[in-house]
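pinging the channel bc i need a second pair of eyes. not urgent but kinda urgent?? the chain im working w is below, pasted from the shared doc
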Amino acid sequence: GGTLEVLVNIMKLNPYNERIQQMVNKTIQAFCLNDRLAALIAERMGSAGFVFSMKKHVEPETLASTCSATAKLLRSDASVDMFVKGGVVAGLRHVVHTQEQNVEVLVPATQCLDRICDNAIYCADVMESGVVPDILNALKHYPENAALVGHVLSMIGKLAAVSPEYLDALKKLGAVDILVAALDMHPDDERLNGLGARALKLLAGEADINSAFKVAVGNTMETANALSKMSSLLLVDENVDYLIANQGIAWLISALNSALPEHSEVASKILVSGCRALMRMAGDENKIYSIMQQGGVKLLVAIIEGHLQDENVVVSALNALAK
């Protein structure tokens, strides 16, 4: 018991000393061995010192450790209540807004926000704080960071589920394209694909598929981008059904055929995304049969044979064949 009081006092006496804050944060993280201890520590420590650090400290290392310690303390619902009432959402918004260059700070900050969004009531605080555009911007700049992608996908999925108004606001912020581009960097990550499917099921509808679908097939970056968007949208089962019902297999196969003889960065991207899209369409025997009927299997073999030097293309085509 005494240790925590000492830590609180140190923070109060040295509010601007960032090295001391870092030591306190590390100590707290070490103490939070399980949910019960985390709840107890949060209750004893209170939220004020951490929110102060988020708003006033400037060193990335300090802010990263403050957000990581806060994430540990937010394990219990009572702690989330206390931190939200203590102004943590504004603190996190300040961190995300000022630390857009520092992914090591953005990851624990979004982890905290994702946890806060578990409570639909607090989703309002998050939406109204103005942090969401900054979060999407962070994802746009660091789509390769799997931890960040996971927290953002999870958080956006929770916000999108709250109300049609939130859903609309997220669409207007361009969330679909940003999430799709991030998912494109982690095609084989089952957990991220699951989180992506949940968010995109709410966010992306037939209009998004149609916009990808309307792109003329050709060996262009536009076709490549349309296919990469489509392959992520196909994580959602309903989108697969819609695409198959609307001659989507034929469109995909013609896009792959047009890139088959080419050897360029654009062709490689078309082949990788197109094969991934075919793989995600091959959900059951009927769908696999439709793909085979339209020459999909022969085409995949031809793609592998024609692009043996291009590891990404070979892997993507083999994954599709394996389905």
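so The two ends are 57 Å apart (CA to CA). and The chain is about 80% helix and 0% strand. — does that match what u expected or am i reading it wrong
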